[in-house]
TrEMBL record:
InterPro entries: Bact_Sporulation_Assoc, Cell_wall-bd_2. Gene3D superfamilies: 3.40.50.12090. It comes from Kineococcus mangrovi. This is Cell wall-binding repeat-containing protein. Keywords: Signal. Transmembrane segments: none annotated. Residues 1-28 form the signal peptide. It comes from the Bacteria.
């Protein structure tokens, strides 16, 4: 049964890569049965977006087929290929991409990138300081991507990255970066659409997983996701208010975002559980309450070493549960399906759903 298979969802070595689709070209009227992605154009955007210039909409991910037992596996031979497989699923037509570091020490730079990427009808792809990996390059060339937004400083994506992208046919590049992770987060939010609701998470290394669980809902709802510093929360609060935010969902408990950091935020309300898996479930419930479908769910790895898969999956815009080899993870999964029933589950990276 589908449900018992989900009960056995676990972290395993990355499965064989999902077969990639053929290249797509942008169209004014994407095909039925797929999401339609229309870029939100901003005068502040530092790259030239062909879709904004031409008024183009793009074909996005396939819509659920109505089968309550639908499972989609998106994985590749490594994290770079997994991100490319996610991009092929969610962004089979794209003129623009967002490039972030796929190296663990720099993942934090891109935690606020998912809402901006989705607003641009763009996938999040992974690079390194000194290279554009083969899977990333293949996606860019297959889709003739014309513009790439780099997220993070030169230590994350080196100074030669723009030259490497131009060699792949990219004609417009720009970098979004700040002096630290919090300033980078605010710079990304400043480019995203205005919204009355926002999401906030800790920027501390031990709690980054909370931001990953919030990224899909924030992206689908076109709402900002911002990192807040316990010791200096006022810039985050000001950045949210500058984008029109009047209420805030705070991902995680006081051990992540301290009460003194929560206080200045616009009308903050926590979504938190006893551990990262329960917190992700609380965020998913919050996203359903705010309009996301409960029967189109993402499973992402919730353990260190595999969190990057959730980073690349954020722009898909799905309610997200984290999976790990602990009872609390399985209990959350079972409780979700007891409450909401089953539908499409998309498992990314090191998460593989058993038979």
């Amino acid at each position: 049964m589908f449900r018992s298979a989900l009960r056995r969802a676990a972290l395993v070595p990355v499965a064989a890569a999902l077969a990639l689709g053929s290249a797509g070209t942008a169209s004014a009227a994407p095909a039925d049965g797929f999401e339609t992605l229309t870029p939100v154009c901003s005068a502040q955007l530092p790259i030239t977006h062909p879709g904004c210039v031409a008024g183009t909409s793009y074909r996005g991910a396939p819509l659920p087929d109505g089968d309550p037992n639908q499972i989609v596996q998106l994985s590749g031979a490594d994290r770079f290929a997994t991100a490319a497989a996610i991009a092929e699923h969610g962004f089979p037509e794209a003129d623009v991409a967002v490039l972030v570091s796929g190296e663990d020490r720099h993942l934090v730079d891109a935690l606020s990138a998912a809402p901006l990427a989705r607003s641009l009808a763009a996938p999040v792809l992974l690079g390194t300081r000194d290279a554009v990996p083969a899977a990333t390059a293949a996606y860019l060339q297959r889709h003739r991507v014309q513009a790439v937004l780099l997220v993070g400083g030169a230590d994350a994506l080196g100074e030669g990255t723009a030259d490497r992208l131009r060699a792949l046919g990219v004609t417009s590049t720009a970098r979004v970066a700040g002096a630290d992770r919090y300033e980078t987060s605010r710079a990304l939010v400043a480019l995203a659409p205005r919204a009355t609701h926002g999401w906030v998470a800790s920027g501390e290394d031990a709690h980054l997983v909370d931001a990953l669980a919030a990224s899909g809902p924030a992206a689908r709802l076109a709402e900002p996701l911002l990192l807040v510093a316990d010791g200096d929360p006022l810039p985050a609060a000001a950045a949210l208010r500058a984008r029109g935010v009047t209420s805030t969902t705070v991902a995680g408990g006081p051990e992540g975002v301290a009460p003194e950091a929560l206080a200045p935020l616009p009308a903050p309300q926590r979504a938190a559980g006893d551990d990262r898996y329960a917190t992700a479930a609380e965020l998913a419930v919050e996203s359903v309450d705010r309009g996301l479908p409960a029967d189109d769910l993402l499973f992402a790895p919730g353990v260190s070493g595999h969190l990057v898969d959730a980073l690349a999956a954020g722009p898909l815009g799905r309610a997200t549960l984290l999976v790990g080899d602990v009872d609390s993870s399985y209990d959350v999964i079972e409780a979700w399906f007891d409450t909401f029933g089953s539908g499409r589950v998309t498992a990314v990276g090191a998460v593989e759903i058993g038979d």
